[in-house]
Amino acid sequence: MKAKVSRIWGYIGGTFTTVSLVPQLLKILESKETKDISFWMYLILSTGVFLWVVHGIRNRDRPVILFNVITLAFTVTILILKCHYG
Description:
Blueprint: H1 2-19, H2 22-31, H3 39-59, H4 62-85
């Protein structure tokens, strides 16, 4: 029971963390402007999120894997758009 509750908290936390990147991504897609976005911040964040994916896989932790794979897709997309729009 305790593990099930912990997993639920993982899904809730993962949802909020992952969804937090959506407004930034939508703003970039709409404005095609990235001058106020830090390349280094998103590079460091993407690296950290990738390491969380590795950690999740090694520990077979589904919420960690699921949400960090999605988050990684968002952060890498933002990095690509930063490079594209400068």
